[in-house]
Amino acid sequence: MKRLIATLSLWYAILLTACSSTPPSTLPVARDDIESVRKQLEGYIQHEMARHKLAGLSIALVDDQEIIWARGFGWADAAAKVPTGPDTRYRVASISKLFTVTAAMQLVAEGRLELDAPVQNTLPWFTVGSEWPDAGPITLRQLMTHHSGLPRDVAAGFEWLEEVPSMHDFRTMLRALAETQVDAPPERMFSYSNVGLNVVGAMIEAASGQPFEQCVQESVLVPLEMQGAQFSAAVPTDAMMARGHFKGEMRNEPALRDVPAAGLNASVTDLARFLMMQFSGGHNREGAVVLPAAQQTAMLQRQYPDLALNGDIRIGLGWILSDTMIRGGGSVALHAGGIRHYRSQMMMLPEQKLGVVVLSNDGTAGEVVHEVAKRALALLLEARSGIRQDPPEPGFIPSAQAWTDAQWEPVRTACVGDYMTPLGPASVKPKGRGLSVQFDDRKLEVREGEAGRIGLRYRLAGLFPIKLGTLSEMGFECAQIDGHHVLLGIWDGTRMLISEKLPKPSLPADASRWIGRYKPRLLEGEISMLDSDKGVRVFLADGRLLAEYQFHSVFGGEKIRVLLHPISETVLRAISGPLSDTGPVVQLINEDGEVPRFRFSGWVFERVSE
Question: Does the pTM of the predicted model rise above 0.90?
């Protein structure tokens, strides 16, 4: 499923994009006609790389214990005209998490780690504050499945120009969590956390008695014959490593603190061997056990299936799972990755023993690597089984007849209110007997649909309909789940939690103390994911305190707004959804005679203007 559908993080881009070139469609594939699969993929990849101006990309297709096709496209180094190939290495970003989880599961098999024991059994020093002290301890299972409630990231010290100073590595960052709080109680819902996988890395060190990088190298990478693959903070500079690019132009990739979460460098053939292990019950190509079958199978089993707030999100131990992305071949297991100038996707159909790896050294390749991988896996399934994919099932079908007042009334009652969404604040308001949705200066019409669902339509200047792509086919429902009044999105048979209706506006005492523009205080050599020129603006709007910031262009350049909800006079919670009572904390540091400051995500922000 596209990242848009999984997280709605690309809504903004869709609203601003009216059209694009049409990629080549797939043609029917005869049984075992891998040559047709190869040709179709070559044409599609070349089309998409030209369309998005990508530097380089490599792909590998796996059928059980064989790499049936692997090739590079474009440049590993565009300036020096060094081509990519199957053995070109890339920073694979969050695909690294699967290797971190695999190493931890080896230690589980040996009895040196326990899935459901408190983290403190392994890391006695580990502590983090919580607004929910009775919620129970954080466990390894929760960390592996993004159910720990830990923050997604600690932004301070995340990236460095060259090397990560030893006093600012991931281990030091984890000890500093004692000064902050969890975003949510454990096991409330799925909430992606790079911090959580760094904790897993620290647990691996404690249980194995080895540095994290050495442990994973010796226990996972070497046994799988992943030649040259390694975890590292700084990107290697050897001849086989692809240089980072952005829109085809070469860029230097910063060093990364969060090595267990995103620090693996590997080629598509390296990762193909990891897929082969999945298809052989945890064995390598020589037949030796790398991960016992019980633990390898457990990684692919759905965790927390009864958590209502997860909707239809399916998560294994490390793996993301989907029953709808590709139909007819069993569940898809996948993981994507993205860092400044690299994008990656790995997908497999375990029941069919088919898999694909796609890696790119261009920061604009996120959509491409996903769509290439999805198309490749669907074509492989068709070649092996004859199963051809149908178009996705729309979540919204326009109603054949206009709704009556009786049909609109429960929808208005359930939906009218304010929400925090991936696009920022949104208001659902009555419009005649129907509804409209306001995002900043953009107003969307609410359409009547079948099965009581509503849909969205956008008119440029209020007059000209603009196609919203997949968003036009998403259905929405307002419901009450576990006491939360939530907005759900539906696409291709999958429901996902988008946002919760916000309570009435609430301001901290003397809200004016917070208002102004701030910039983070960076250490020498540290770089920021934010647009440092714009900083963070804190302001009042519609009776609420909001913060606005913008990511660096390599992270999409999106402008983000979050709600600052008071916990106390000097502590706020930054709420960006989906729930209205969870998010990272913001601590005011505003002593007499000092420049106003606040602490957020490890940084100290200083006011630079009103």
Answer: yes
